[in-house]
From TrEMBL:
Species: Aerococcus suis
The TRNA-binding domain, residue ranges: 40-155
EC assignment: 6.1.1.20
Cofactor(s) essential for the protein: Mg(2+)
Family statement drawn from the similarity comment of this UniProt entry: Belongs to the phenylalanyl-tRNA synthetase beta subunit family. Type 1 subfamily.
Domain FDX-ACB, first and last residues per copy: 716-809
Domain B5 as annotated: residue spans: 410-485
Protein's UniProt name: Phenylalanine--tRNA ligase beta subunit
One BP annotation, GO: phenylalanyl-tRNA aminoacylation
Superkingdom of origin organism: Bacteria
Compartments, as annotated in UniProt: Cytoplasm
Assembly and oligomerization: Tetramer of two alpha and two beta subunits.
Enzyme class: ligase
Stored Gene3D superfamilies: 3.30.56.10, Bira Bifunctional Protein, Domain 2, Ferrodoxin-fold anticodon-binding domain, Nucleic acid-binding proteins, Phenylalanyl-trna Synthetase, Chain B, domain 3
Gene: pheT
Length: 809
């Protein structure tokens, strides 16, 4: 919100307040000032010029040699390349020795051999942004009105020596999104009287538009108030210079007098208005309703919008002609041929406006205010104000009457509190007279006593509804710098870490010990990225007010963000990357319940396990390197559970031949802890990665497994023994399956199973593999005999042959 101090001075006297002090004072009372700009402060010797004559430059087709009256005895010869310069124009001239935008000095010069004594300027060269300059002058010089006098200062003529204060208005202070609202705020801060002239709307209230308009509002919950005014026989033309300059200072591009009037009233009151070409409404009907799914509307930006049932639309009784509170339709726009204007002043449901504006990316001055709320006291007044301005500036004939649908409660909000309540929360010792003075400055009426008072809040401050809001207002006006500064009393207690905190810390240390770097990624992601690495279907949690579309959803896994981190680093020539994160993921299992959060551990490892040195060869990361990391984590967790790995091939973003579920079995219950494996080649290619392995597990699921009781055992007094067994099995049989069969078949003191050889190739049938195991036996109570061990090995071989069709070698 850009505020012109000159314009603001018409409501509250601020001319004598230095801009820097003004900005600092407002910032200290809750409305942050982003900056102060004074276009005229850096300009020098910029005057009005009158183009007397013009001829083509002999050596340049696009240059013209102009004789310009600048209020001196002789005209100045200036060479100008602007395409829109013409004789008898009043233009902006930078004299020799003048200063324009960015402190550029203008000197006498020669252009293609012809002397040029100065420069004819565009508004952009004075310091206005290209975005706010009227399209008629966007590519050329600015033409001043005919009444401008040659030699007069342009700085004074355009009132450029004006401090423009840019306010950063928070959502709760939408009342300050207008000149009047800011005036009330400044008046309260400086304890100055505010002068606001209101329009008498009684003549409009007492009559209707009759046959000129039929108004219908389908749902007053979506459209609580709608007022329609009619102005006939207008002349559409450029706005007067004072109006154009005020809009440009406010950051709005002038269009024509009708559209500019609606924008001017918007800046005055903070009330969005819309002007329809009345003659383009053949039925002379306005009806508000919810859009039908699939219905289309071509908006003023010439884009076709496909509507849905959450969009409020203005219709002509049949077809949509505007997106309510967001943007008008192209079919009913104001053009140079418009003669009759229908003015809309309304308020709409903020939730619908926000959804519509966000969906179509149509964030405007109007949608901003409709989203955050408006002053219901002045909705009807703003329509009348616009109608009277169209009479004054567009020669229109105002129809004294209006059509309206109104379902608003105009009763001011009241809030009760006490002096002790406010003093206790601010730490102050204010008296009741001081409190009364503060509320008077704010324009709030106060009744009651120090022990119990009631504050009546004007409707222009719809952000105040509870006692805590009153506390904030008192603190702002009294001065945050005057509040006593004290530290809260608290006794420090060393409570130590909970088991869960200790386990997370231990896991963090372990991952760093294993060579991984910790990353802390965003907890928010986009709809596009949410499905990536989503192993199991999950209903994501969407934010109501995301800061951007890229941060709309709470993440449902950690790996996706880690892949972004790895991609960023590898793109900068860090090829070997090991990163991990311990963080929460979120899902919504039931829309009627709160979202659930679960703490996960995820890691990504890409590149080489070791680089080539003088005595070692380089070695790429393998599936078993990452599996070793997972096994270390699970072993150090010290949980009483049997950990198994089950090959899977249907995870979309994982390699179908190198991916496994991580399972834990305890008390005859098997739970899935997570997964690990190699990234699918297509997914890796999308992230510009090559040899990349990942895992993600629920840290909470691991922690919740029963803890293993560590019992110290004496060293065995009796020797153990081992047997080797080799078998030929199908390639499809996994090591995990073989070990399970061995354990199930053995009823002896088998303490360890170790795979020491795998062979495929010569003398081995295609589609099969040879696997050799060492079986370790130990009985701590007695020495084992060969018969005991052989008997157990026989049972194992029989089971392998029967269950796996294995051939014992």
């Amino acid at each position: 919100m850009k505020i012109s101090k000159t314009w603001l001075n018409e409501y509250v006297p601020v001319a004598d307040i230095p801009a820097s002090e003004f900005a600092e004072r407002l910032s200290r009372t809750g409305i942050e000032v982003d900056g102060v700009e004074n276009i005229g402060a850096g300009l020098k010797k910029i005057v009005v010029g009158h183009v007397l004559s013009m001829e083509k430059h002999p050596d340049a087709d696009k240059l013209n040699i102009c004789q310009i009256d600048v209020g001196e005895e002789e005209p100045y010869q200036i060479v100008c390349g602007a395409p829109n310069i013409a004789p008898n124009q009043k233009v902006i001239v930078a004299m020799p020795g003048s200063r324009i935008k960015d402190n550029v000095k203008i000197k006498k010069s020669k252009l293609r051999g012809v002397k040029s004594n100065g420069m004819v300027c565009s508004l952009e060269e004075l310091g206005f942004s290209e975005a706010v300059i009227s399209k008629a002058y966007a590519d050329g010089i600015y033409v001043l009105p005919a009444d401008a006098q040659p030699g007069d200062s342009v700085i004074d003529y355009l009132n450029l020596d004006d401090d423009i204060v840019e306010l950063d208005i928070t959502p709760n202070r939408a009342d300050a999104l207008s000149m009047m609202g800011t005036a009330y705020e400044v008046g309260a801060v400086y304890n100055k009287d505010v002068t606001v002239s209101h329009i008498d709307t009684s003549d409009y209230e007492q009559a209707s538009l009759g046959d000129d308009l039929k108004l219908s509002v389908t749902d007053t919950d979506k459209v609580p108030a709608y007022y329609a005014y009619l102005v006939k026989n207008v002349t559409v033309k450029p706005s007067p210079l004072w109006l154009q300059v005020r809009l440009m200072k406010a950051g709005i591009r002038p269009m024509n007098n009708i559209v500019d009037i609606t924008n001017y009233v918007l800046m005055e009151y903070g009330q969005p208005l819309h002007a329809f070409d009345y003659d383009k409404l053949p039925s002379h009907t306005i009806e508000t309703r919810m859009a039908n799914n699939g219905e289309e509307l071509v908006t003023l930006d010439e884009e076709t919008r496909e509507l849905s049932e959450e969009d409020i639309v203005i219709t002509d009784g049949e077809r949509p002609i505007a997106l309510a509170g967001v943007m008008g339709g192209l079919d009913t726009e104001i053009t140079d041929n418009t003669t009759n204007v229908l003015i809309e002043a309304a308020t709409f449901n903020p939730v619908n406006i926000r959804k519509t504006a966000r969906k179509f990316g149509l964030r405007s001055e109007s949608s901003l205010r409709n989203e955050r709320g408006i002053n219901i006291d002045t909705i009807a007044e703003t329509g009348a104000r616009a109608a009277e301005l169209m009479h004054k500036l567009a020669d229109g004939e105002v129809v004294l009457g209006r059509e309206s649908v109104e379902a608003l409660d105009f009763t001011p909000q009241t809030v009760t509190s006490s002096l002790s309540f406010i003093n206790h929360r601010l730490g102050t010792d204010l008296d009741y007279d001081t409190l009364t003075q503060i509320f008077n400055q704010l324009g709030f009426s106060l009744t009651g006593s120090a022990e119990h008072f009631t504050v009546t809040i004007p409707n222009r401050r719809w952000d105040i509804s509870i006692p805590a809001d009153l506390v904030e207002e008192v603190a702002r006006i009294y001065g945050y710098d005057k509040l006593p500064a004290t530290l809260p009393e608290s006794k420090s207690v060393n409570a130590g870490l909970t088991p869960w905190q200790a386990y997370k810390r231990q896991t963090n240390q372990l991952m760093r010990t294993l060579g991984f770097d910790q990353a802390i990624a965003y907890s928010l992601t986009s709809e596009k990225k949410q499905p990536i690495m989503q192993i199991h279907e999950s209903h994501p949690v969407a934010l109501d007010f995301p800061m951007s579309d890229d941060r709309r959803l709470l993440r449902t896994n950690l790996t996706t963000a880690l892949l972004d981190v790895v991609q960023y680093n590898t793109a900068r020539q860090t090829k070997n990357v090991q990163v991990y994160e311990i963080g929460q993921v979120f899902s919504w299992e039931d829309d009627n319940e709160l979202p659930s959060a679960n703490t996960h551990l995820a890691a990504v490892w890409t590149g080489m396990k070791s680089e080539k040195t003088w005595n070692t060869a380089k070695e790429a990361i393998s599936f078993f390197d990452m599996k070793g990391v997972v096994e270390t984590i699970l072993t150090k967790a010290n949980r009483e559970a049997e950990i198994t790995y089950e090959a899977v091939s249907d995870y979309a973003d994982m390699h179908p031949g190198q991916t496994a579920k991580v399972l834990a079995t305890t008390n005859d219950e098997t739970i899935e802890l997570g997964y690990m494996g190699k990234l699918h080649p297509d997914t890796a290619k999308n992230y510009d990665l090559k040899n990349t392995f990942v895992f993600e597990m629920s840290l909470e699921a691991i922690f919740n497994l029963p803890e293993k009781q560590v019992v110290q055992m004496p060293l065995p007094k009796h020797p153990g023994s081992s047997r080797d067994i080799a078998l030929l099995v199908s390639d499809e049989v996994t090591h995990e399956t073989i070990t399970q069969v061995i354990r199930s078949a053995s009823d002896g003191p088998l303490v360890a199973i170790e795979l020491f050889d795998i062979y495929r190739g010569e003398n081995i049938e295609s589609g099969k593999k040879s696997m050799a195991y060492s079986l370790a036996y130990l009985n701590p109570e007695t020495t084992l005999t060969d018969e005991e061990i052989s008997s157990d090995v026989d049972k194992i071989t029989t089971a392998l042959q029967t269950e796996l069709n294995a051939e014992i070698r």
